[in-house]
Amino acid sequence: MTAPNTTMTATEAVGAVNAVRPDAEGATVEMIDVVKDYGNARALSGFTLSMQPGELVALLGPSGCGKTTALRALAGLTPITSGTMRVDGEAVAHLPTNKRDVGMVFQSYSLFPHMTAQDNVEYGLRMRKVPKAERRERAAEMLASVGLDELGHRYAHELSGGQQQRVALARALVTRPSVLLLDEPLSALDAKVRVELRELIRLIQTELRITTLFVTHDQEEALAMADRVAVMSNGVIRQIGTPEDLYSRPTSAFVADFVGLSNPVPATLTGGTITAYGTTFELLGDPLPDGPVVALVRPEDVTFTEDGIPATVITSSFLGSLRRTIVRLDDASVLTVQHDASDVRFAGARANIAFTGRPVSARKV
Amino acid sequence: MTALTDIPRATPEAQDAPRLPRRGAVRHRGADVGPSRTTRVVVLLITALFLGLPLFALGAFTVRGGLKGGVTLSHWHDLFGGELGASSGPLWTGLQNSLLLSVVTVVVMLALLVPTMILVRLHMPRLEKTLEFVCLLPLTIPTVALVVGLAPVFSVVARIFGSGSWTLAFAYVIVTLPYSYRAIQANLVAVDVVTLAEAARSLGASWTATMRDVLLPNLRRGMLAASFISIAVVLGEFTIASLLSRTNLQTALVLVSKRDPYVSNIVVLMSLLFALVLLFALGRVGTQSRRSRS
Amino acid sequence: MVTSGLPLSTKAKIPGGAALGLLPFGAYVAIFLAIPTLLAVGTGFRTKSGGFTLDTIKALGDPVVLGTFWSSAWLSALTAVLGVTFGAIICYALIGMRPDGTFRNAINAISGVLAQFAGVPLAFAYIAALGLNGMVTLFLKDTWGINIYSGGTWLYQMPGLVLPYMAFQIPLMVIVFLPALEALKPQWAEANATLGGTRFTYWTRVGLPVLVPSLIGSLLLLFANAFSAYATAAALISQGSQIVPLQIRAALSSETVLGHENLAGALALGMILTMVVVMSLYSLADRRSTKWRR
């Protein structure tokens, strides 16, 4: 491989790295009925996931739901109690971590402190007995593709959090592993850096066509990055689908509640139809018995109208391209309305709201 | 092939299924870089042997019946049977002195160190580094070298306070300074006395009340740790007492050992055990308070 | 560590009073630490009649004295190197303990007792085991006819100090180094594994390199510890000046040492200078090792 003389753009660099295995497709990953017990506590209860080559799946869920356990199980850092795990059809459950072809990025502190960024990135290649010159070249290219081409000589404590995670990413990817595993890599970073890095990860992952599993508790992150999102609770996947699927067609109140904002509205369910404030909605997801329910209405499904249900504005927040206004209905219920930023509302003003009537999820009272 | 390498499933019916046999699967532990069980056991066993043998010999000696072997508790009886022979006298004096020294050292250390450290932390934070340096200085100045200069100081002390052994406590406070400082400082940092003091003052408390009701109760752990360590150090101190010709536990032991090795070895053994219990209890106090927080 | 900006009211309420509050501590340290140190060092420059002289300092160049310093140095160096080596192996065998578990607490207590407390008791224990009538001595003599004292009474002389010194050097190493070992981040071991490394590559490429400053620091600390140790040697060797602390003992008890009074002061100066150099290097190494722990 010829070394370029000019500084490459990120895309060029990634393309150059990709040139080594131009037709490489990502690996398929299967985790079937994986169970992990810690004594009497069950962290994973029959966790099942199938990943297509090159796709990015986000594991999303609250603390303790088992998402990190599932990731570490695939990495081999946590032995499993029972179940099957296959990468490209080959079983891996019996293999120690260093024999599984995975690249992993940790939440923090994972760079070797006594090595420069360049040395860190070369480490995996060194383990694979790649000759020195080639090692140096590939590591330098990888550092360039994450935007750190001038900083290879720096040590971890001389780099910012965001830069450290870029190095960690380069280090994990330079060996072209079959699977990329990311354990909440952005959680310890500032908001702005988080967004930058999010885009970088997505870009590289797509260019390299590497199958990626991404663990996060931040639903906005998951929805923005992933091809598919798997929402977990109590050791199992509750629903898996595209971000749109999860947002618009949640199959349970848990998912509807966890993904995106929702207004809990007291309503009545009769024969599959929900009625609240005179509006009817179709029920999404698993059926519920008739009777009183709590409907989960998205803020963008509540609108301001000329005449509708009377309400008083409590506060209004400006969010750039849209606004979220909190109103109190005359019966004391509180709703969040999401609307165009140009429609300015002031605290104390009266307004009328209505529902768009799009299908909603609901849970029992 | 996959069937052979899959880890067997637990039978779904068994709710409380027993642990699966791991004979088939390799016990890979991910990133375990620690020693194997064999290494651990071998190393610790050899260590226990090397460090424990002399102590065991000490114990064995105390029950030795004559040069040709045999086990007897007669030496223990001699000590506890109330026979205040020529041997037990100086030992008893030494022990008493050491206990008194411990008490005086702890009292003076706490009275001196705690207010000073609080004062510096609250009002003169820039002096904290200097205070640390001073308190850790005794680690750099060997006790045996310090004694050369302590003799003239103590002749002055003797004129004021008399020449009882208890005055050694003044020097002992310096000797225990590094350990006591560290114990109290760890506590100070952990409970953020600055914020506590500000809160108390803003609620109208006087300085006495702040110290008594807010600060000191939160420093109990550090003060206790400092006290325990000081006691252990004082009981084991030999250098200063010996070179200033005073009697404490350790000098008495050396003196008596020449005449009656049995009695002295018994007391040595007991003092070691006592120090062990002391430090172990200290550790428990530390972990208990840590556990109760979480 | 962030100290909050103190509200001006706190300082204003006690103007200058804060500095006054430091007086007790400052005076105490001056009287019992600063003055003795200065006196100790100063007597090296004075004749018996009180005049200034450099003769006593020059006496440090005497071959006997130099020989003593050399003995102290190699004893300290030897026990430091051995202590670091064996201590590190023991620490490795102890990896993986729960930080507030009973076992860890026990290890802390035992190391603490052996390292800080056991000067005289340790000497007694070694005499009981390896002395002329020691358990091991008699066992070897009776069982296999080996007389370990056929070459001379080594336990009561210089070479005999090595073993008892190890008994407090190794525990000190454990106290100092185990925290450094435990501060190695688990992420490094996990990253090593995901990158294809083995236990061996982890230790050779990551673990040990990161620990080098700690190891050097520990080496220096152990050297300083052995160099300034007095009690064990004094209890084992009743007469003689084989190492510097014992030579100070001899000088203080007015045994004629080269006809130089105040030699103790000069020796103290020599000891303190050595310690200052070693401890300065230690604090440098210590600072480096914590830089990476962040």
The name of the CATH superfamily of chain C reads: MetI-like
The level-1 CATH class of the domain at 92-293 in chain B? Mainly Alpha
The low-pLDDT segments of chain C are 1-15
Q: Could you name the ranges of chain B where pLDDT drops below 50 across 5 or more consecutive residues?
A: 1-29
- Mass-distribution shape of chain C: globular
How much of the polypeptide of chain C forms β-strand, as a percent range?
under 5%
- CATH fold-level topology of the domain at 92-293 in chain B: MetI-like fold
Describe it for me?
The complex is a heterotrimer of chains A (365), B (294) and C (294). Chain A is an alpha+beta fold and 365 residues long. In chain A, 25% of the residues lie in helices and 34% in strands. Chain A contains nine helices and 20 strands. Chain A has helices at residues 10-18, 67-75, 117-127, 132-145, 161-173, 191-208, 219-225, 243-248, 253-258; strands at 29-38, 41-51, 56-60, 82-87, 90-91, 102-105, 179-183, 211-216, 228-233, 236-241, 263-270, 273-276, 279-282, 291-297, 302-305, 309-318, 322-329, 334-340, 350-355, 361-364. Chain A has a six-stranded mixed sheet with strand order 6-7-8-3-9-10, sandwiched between helices. The radius of gyration of chain A is 24 Å and the shape is globular. The model of chain A is unreliable at 1-8 (pLDDT under 50). Chain B has 294 residues and is mainly α. Chain B has a domain at 92-293: MetI-like fold. The relative contact order of chain B is 0.11. Chain C has one domain (55-291): MetI-like (MetI-like fold), CATH 1.10.3720.10. Helices cover 71% and strands 0% of the residues of chain C. Chain C is built from 14 helices and no strands. Chain C has helices spanning 8-13, 17-21, 23-43, 55-59, 63-93, 102-117, 119-130, 135-144, 162-182, 186-194, 199-227, 231-236, 244-252, 263-291. In chain C, helix 13 (244-252) runs antiparallel to helix 14 (263-291). Classes of the chains: A alpha+beta (365), B mainly alpha (294), C mainly alpha (294). Chains in contact: A-B, A-C, B-C. At the B-C interface, helix 2, helix 4, helix 5, helix 6 and helix 7 of B face helix 2, helix 3, helix 5, helix 6 and helix 7 of C.
